[in-house]
Amino acid sequence: MTWGGGGVARDNDLKILKRSIVTWRKRRCGDVISELRGSRSCSSTSTASTRFTVGNVTVRPGSAEGFLDVSGGGYLHADGERFDGSPFDRVNTVNADDNLLRLESFHTFVSVRRLSLRRNRLKSVKPIDGDLAETLIRLDVSENQLNPDDIYRLSIMSKLEQLYMLANNLTAIPESITNCHCFLSLKLLDLSDNYLSCPRTFYVLSTLHNLQVLNMSNNRISFIPYLVMKQESDYINGKNQTEAYQDNEDMENDKNDDTKEIVYHAYHIPFVSLITINLSNNMLAHNSSVLSLICWPSLKNVILTANTISLNKNLIEFKKLMSTLSVFNIKTKR
């Protein structure tokens, strides 16, 4: 009986101990959840109220390259805020991705040469003057909600050499950038992951005389138009009159090939400096869709990955295209 009584006592002790452990675990889990909720709430409140001001931004001491990283900080644009003097006057590279900032948030930085504003919910940009317009050479405004008019506003930044505008839902490029004062120094333009399909896009972009690299991947391009330079004698009343016409003739005389041929007459040498164009993942279905590239005087590299013409089933025709382009010293990547 004593042994039995002792066994019962031990069983009761074990049950009490188990209940204590379960209770402790529940309380501990509850405390952890409360802490997490509290920290999230504090973080959310802090993020929502962090204005982009001198007092809220810290430049890491000893940064030899003058690098400022405020990405993901939840910063909001503050009107009228100035970043004058040390340490901001030595900042030349800024990563400001994933905030709610604007281009004008940085207009008083005197030395910024590279600026990234990805995912800042930008719906428009204002023309920039002052120090930023004179120093900025690389700008990334990808994954925002900019429109064609914003491209023109950015074009007046005469020192800009690299512009990344991928994933902005762009459907057109403004005619206004054909002005001789637009994108005077631009060498690289990334317009990938948009909805560009109009052949006139190439006519407009062909006026950028210093452009060397053009990324048009992941758009809706189905053919490249011919850009034919007209003689000065073709001017009418001294005005530059661009004209376009469509010829339904198939360049390969294949009746089963429903290609289009569009010709734009221009009074400039089209894509005079362009070396590389990326046309991957578009809607290019026939060799004749890209043969017009042979007219671009400086072109050396064409990327056609993930187009119908580069599929395995069209390998024989694609090799013919590669051979044709190689005659003009153009390398083709499949």
Which helices and strands appear, and what pairs or packs with what?
Blueprint: H1 2-48, E1 67-69, E2 93-95, E3 114-116, H2 130-135, E4 138-140, H3 148-155, E5 162-164, E6 188-190, H4 200-205, E7 213-215, E8 226-229, E9 244-247, E10 261-266, E11 276-278, E12 301-303, H5 315-327, E13 331-333
Parallel strand pairs: 1-2, 2-3, 3-4, 4-5, 5-6, 6-7, 7-11, 8-10, 11-12, 12-13
Antiparallel strand pairs: 9-10
Architecture overview:
This protein is of the alpha/beta class and 334 residues long. The chain is built from 5 helices and 13 strands. The strands form 2 sheets. It has a 10-stranded parallel β-sheet, with helices on one face. It has a 3-stranded mixed β-sheet with strand order 8-10-9. It is elongated, with a radius of gyration of 30 Å. The model is unreliable at 30-47 and 235-258 (pLDDT under 50).
| Structural class assignment | alpha/beta
Helical stretch count?
A: 5
Apparent shape: elongated
Largest sheet: 10 strands, parallel
Low-confidence stretches: 30-47, 235-258
State the helicity in percent bands. 10-25%
Mean pLDDT: 82
- How large is the radius of gyration? 30 Å
Order of neighbouring strands in the sheet with most strands: 1-2-3-4-5-6-7-11-12-13
Question: What's the helix-strand series?
Answer: HEEEHEHEEHEEEEEEHE
Write down how many β-strands occur, each being a DSSP E stretch of 2 or more residues. Answer: 13
From the N-terminal CA to the C-terminal CA, the straight-line distance is: 88 Å
How much strand? Answer: 5-15%
What is the assembly state of the chains in this entry? single chain
